[in-house]
Amino acid sequence: MKQHIHIAVIASTIDEDYQSGILSGIRQFASANGITLAHFAASGNIGGDERHDTGEYNIFSLVDFQQFDGVILLINTIQNVKYREAVLERVRHIHVPTVCIDKDVPELYSICIDNEKAMCNIVEHFILHHGYTRINYVSGPADNIDSSQRLKAYRDVLKKYGIPLEEKRIYHGNFVSHDGANAVQKFLQDEMPQAIVCANDNMAIGVMNALAVRGIRVPEEIAVSGFDYTYNARNYAPSLTSVERPLERVGQLACRKILNHLEEIPQERSEIMDTQCRFSQSCGCNQVSLMDTDEFKKRNFTVLESFSEDISLISRMASALTSCDSLEHYAENLKPFIREINCKEFWLCLCDSWTQGIMADENEENYLMHILSPEDYIIEGYGNRMLVPLAYRDGSFFEMWDFSVLEMLPGLFSDENERGEYYFVPLHIGERTLGYCVMKDSPFPVNSKLFHNFITNISNSLESVRKFLCLNRITQKLNKLYTVDTLANINNRNGFRISTQHLFQACIRERKPVMLMFLDMDGLKYINDTFGHKAGDNAIWCMAEVLRQVCTEQEVCCRFGGDEFIIFAADYTEQKAENLSRKIRNLLEETNRKKKFSYTLAASLGYYISVPEEDTNLFQLVTIADHIMYEEKKRHKNSHYLKQGIFRPGME
């Protein structure tokens, strides 16, 4: 047998009493036998949001069952049929010992209870011991095997004792507390029942709360029963009649079956565990001794204190992560809270698609569409590679490279890795996957009722960072589109106005001269008409490139529109303006020599220098410079150079 045994545990809503009881037994056995556990834990069936459930149950797609030595399925905790069947289908086709709890799957080991016998005992108790005939029933989901077996038992017992079966006395819920309240609202619209039998304790407590609100006494007016015998049910007032299940023994036996298989020890494929009915105050029997009052107070104080600490942790974390403006900032702010949950290891793993859109090339033509495209979102699986912005081990944070999603976690199956308990939990927004967190040897996932809130907080704040980065990139792109000429890649009119306004106002205040130079390309229409608009666009770009190269002393240049360009400079002299003009003409000649266009790149220019007054508008000076340029252009038109030289004779 392998030196290191790794077992994958598949479960949902691990903070509920049924799940935590079984998981406690699994952990006890694993710890005693040196087994490493990897829990893949979802939190489905919260609020009836299918998109949320999709994001939660997606964590099961991460599991490579073939890499594990055994698998334990708390299969009935997965309320969504699609994902439940998907998990079963995958484990059917692997050669890894798999134990399915509370569902007998022929190809797998199974550990179940006799749901029908247990529920029959409860219903018969109300009929035979209390003489009730008006017995209503609150059922769980129709596609849940426990639920369907318990409902069948209820129907069979009524039939056995000749009590008419009325469908209006049955309410179909989802095993959650508010189903009990909804059931009471429905039942009280008709003849009031003598007893309400519930398929689990959560719904039974919901029933008793709803009856108390209406002033209906339990059990004097309506008796109530549940199923699972949870801590809350035992210590409710009145204490709940229920069915006790050996949950810890189930978890221990599941591990034992995997170990027996690996050691080739013969064993039964399927086992049925005994249950015991606990008739208590809610049916009027009071056969169960209650917890000692002092012990109850101590336990509740511990629970409340832990709850208060967890609320503080989550509130402080939410505040610290709200204002993060980068992934690095986010990881840094998250670090103190990772230390607080007392884990040996913590890994924040993000799908590489998390950066798609954010890191896209903003020069792409469809950049704004790409950055918000839902096509970049992952709904099924986790992509190809995982990014690790935050990794923690043995009290220290360290940098971690990205890794293949097929690994699930680097070093998970390494022989050097110490035995431990891992929790893989999903990060998502609705159905859209962000990644997952991994914790090792932390009491937080199993001891805190707010663990899911903690993980949801991480998901929501991560999404806020992603949106901030996206919006920041979009804003930068829009600003560029607003201020930069997309063809010339220099300022447009808006950019020119924004870039020069402070300089211009400073010159007014300090009585310093400003220079406005106006340039007009010569022959752009001829280039467009003769060589096409692509050549004309290239000529515009080359003219802008010339201006970018010569404007090296804080001059601001822009494409004013069409074939017109402007240069602004503060605190400028006549000599500087002449030097700038000469540089432009020289660089145009050099560009023509190097590029060997089928045309000559040329421009007419004029400049105007003055000390602006308080009421002077910048564009008034632009107009003056334009007139000066126009006079130069007229001189060019009367010259032999323009007639014969701008367009090279003999060239197309």
Walk me through what this model shows.
This protein has 652 residues and is α/β, with parallel strands linked by helices. The chain contains 20 helices and 22 strands. Strands 1, 2, 3, 4, 5, 11, 13, 14, 15, 16, 17 and 18 form a twelve-stranded mixed beta sheet that branches. The N and C termini lie far apart (84 Å).
List the helices and strands and how they pair.
Blueprint: E1 5-12, H1 17-32, E2 35-42, H2 50-57, E3 70-73, H3 81-92, E4 98-101, E5 109-113, H4 115-129, E6 135-139, H5 145-160, E7 170-172, H6 177-187, E8 195-198, H7 201-213, E9 223-225, H8 231-234, E10 242-244, H9 247-262, E11 270-273, E12 276-278, H10 293-322, H11 327-340, E13 345-351, H12 367-371, E14 385-393, E15 396-398, E16 403-404, E17 421-429, E18 432-440, H13 444-447, H14 451-483, H15 493-510, E19 514-521, H16 524-531, H17 533-550, E20 556-561, E21 564-570, H18 574-595, E22 603-610, H19 618-637, H20 640-644
Parallel strand pairs: 1-2, 1-3, 2-17, 3-4, 4-5, 5-11, 6-7, 6-8, 8-9
Antiparallel strand pairs: 10-12, 13-14, 13-18, 14-15, 14-16, 17-18, 19-21, 19-22, 20-21
Helix pairs in contact: 1-9, 4-5, 6-7, 10-11, 10-14, 16-17, 17-18
Brief description of this entry?
This protein has 652 residues and is an alpha/beta fold. The protein contains 20 helices and 22 strands.
Count of runs of 4 or more consecutive helical residues: 20
Radius of gyration, rounded?
38 Å
The residue fraction in helices comes out at: 40-55%
Q: What class do helices, strands and sheet pairing give?
A: alpha/beta
